[in-house]
Amino acid sequence: MVDTVSEAQRSYNMSRIRSKNTKPEVLIRSVLHGLGYRFTVNGPKNRQLPGKPDIVLPKYRAVIFVHGCFWHGHKGCKDFRLPKTRTDWWRAKINRNRSRAARNLAAVGALGWRAIVIWACEFNTSAKLEALRASLPGRIGLPTEVPEARAVAEPAHPYGKRRAKKQ
Fold it and tell me: Is the pTM of this model over 0.85?
């Protein structure tokens, strides 16, 4: 199959693919924040740990790698298909990505950190996102129930606003 765009256009398209602050990463950070976790994204631990994890939870000594199913060759996933053009090159690239990820996970584990891999296909629907939200505390190493953040405001009156009594 012949590529439908020019080589210059393909190069431009590929250069627009981000490696940090991707939509899946931002969504996972939003879920973690909503669950009450505090984490770093660009902190010194992110740069010092092997593989530069996407999210670091220092309090729990846990790191999260958010993997795209295509770029990391998620086996058995419907979102991963080897391209039909330059298949040898793509196969080698994806295998290098897989082996680098495996080395990084082992190195992080050897340093005493819990390494968590979240695949993009694990939360591509709202039902899967809710299941991931429920399973994250257990994957991070906590009981499955995380205490909810408490509001500081006064409790609402059951019938709406209270009126001040006239004296």
Answer: no
